[in-house]
Write a structure and sequence with these properties.
Elements: H1 2-28, E1 35-48, E2 52-66, E3 71-80, E4 85-86, E5 95-96, E6 101-109, E7 115-126, E8 129-143, E9 148-159, E10 164-175
Length: about 180
């Protein structure tokens, strides 16, 4: 009885390791695309002097490169669509805005399939002035066919002068 038990245990271990190796080979040989480009339409709520908020439409162009199943890097760029002096709703504060551009270099972590956590440094460039910021956020991808997906994101950008922006967006993306 004892030799039969030992033979069964050894057989189970041997087949388990064999399946594990096959799984590893299939997983590493998969041809999942590592690059992704997304066009995003969004809306940003931007704090001004820590007391007032501007609501501005934005559009973005994002590029991601995935190092593996869970980690990636990305360059996210957003343009705020405003080109006028804003003063009436801000208690006589004159603010001139002309297409501010936000660019961030982000680390991407996907703990669950189709979910990404985003964190990284960036800059906001407006009329020649460049200010640093930090971005944190979350994105969910609704998968479509042929490596197309619909990203939905929520980002929080913190500038070092104390102001911040909260952005929500919806887009279309292609993996290749």
């Amino acid at each position: 009885m004892k030799p039969l038990m030992v033979a069964l245990i050894l057989t189970l271990f041997a087949t388990n390791f064999n399946f594990s190796q096959e799984h590893y080979i299939k997983e590493s040989a998969s041809h999942e695309p590592r690059h992704r480009v997304a066009f995003i339409l969004g809306h940003s709520f931007i704090s001004i002097d820590n007391h007032n908020t501007l609501s501005i439409p934005t559009f973005g162009l994002d590029y991601e490169y995935w190092l593996g199943d869970h980690w990636g890097i990305g360059i996210f760029s957003d343009v705020e669509l405003i080109t006028k002096e804003v003063s009436s709703s801000l208690h006589d504060i004159d603010i001139e805005r002309q297409y501010p551009l936000v660019v961030t270099l982000d680390a991407l972590w996907s703990p669950i399939e189709h979910w990404e956590l985003v964190f990284g440094p960036g800059i906001i460039s407006e009329q020649g002035d460049i200010e640093p910021l930090v971005r944190i956020g979350v994105e969910h991808d609704l998968a479509l066919h042929n490596h197309w997906d619909v990203p939905i994101n929520l980002f929080y950008d913190k500038k070092f002068d104390g102001n911040y922006a909260i952005s929500i967006g919806l887009g279309i993306a292609k993996r290749f």
